[in-house]
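Troubleshooting entry. The earlier prediction with S-adenosylmethionine gave an output that would not parse, so I re-checked the input for stray whitespace and re-submitted. Clean input:
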Amino acid sequence: MSTTITSQNRSSESAVQARENLYRLFKERPMKDDELLVNLAMFMRSGSLAKILFLNEMYQKIIDLPGIICEFGVWMGQSTITFENLRAVYEPYNYQRRIVGFDTFSGYTGIGDKDIPSEIISDGVYSVSQGYEHYLEELLDYHEKENVMAHIKKHSLIKGDASITCKDFIEHNPEVIVAMAYFDMALYEPTKNCLEAILPRLIKGSVLVFDELCHPNYPGETQAVFEVLQTRNHTIRRSKFLPDRSYIVIE
Ligand SMILES: C[S@@+](CC[C@H](N)C(=O)[O-])C[C@H]1O[C@@H](n2cnc3c(N)ncnc32)[C@H](O)[C@@H]1O
């Protein structure tokens, strides 16, 4: 499923075909595991590199703010782990910069009438293998242990419908300030509910990041943003690295 999702995106047919060559070169790589891990970028396409640069661009905006990072829609966890490592790079001693990832870990559920059903927007798309969240938790633990202040856990994965789990999380953590919220679920209902839940915990400078704003295939996300936020009171900018990713810095 992940291959279908990643290769269908906005790539031309010829690019998808050429990618088969990359898969072959990756499989046939004449290098050992430790060599692979220090040379991973050799296999990273420019689009994937742009995604990392975009996450870095967003992270840099919150360095002087207190608060946690919420990621709504984790999938495999690449962004979650990138945030963990950006924390280690930019603010290794900021043990309060918790990264909290919300996902069903069983993909999309309950597509509403404000969303457009498609090959991507269908129940179960983006599901991961059974128990994947435990694997991801272990991987996050590994990265944390490599970094300083390893004895303080600074990440959590919260499994379930984020419409419910986010509200619950906010209620049970009255100290939480949200420095950054990354909305990557594409759907109306959970985007709206999570935005409403975190709204009282935003401060001036908090960054709200949106993956599918203004995207004709995912109108639900835009509608949720317009309904919850007084959008004309906010400047919405787009990322320097990815043309379809937008963000609002709360003023
Ligand atoms: C596009 S993927 C996220 C990609 C991830 N942010 C990344 O950067 O790799 C969308 C994710 O949203 C999750 N999702 C969709 N609806 C959800 C809901 N109501 N509650 C929690 N997670 C949800 C799906 O399970 C899926 O993993």
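This one parsed fine. The radius of gyration is 18 Å.
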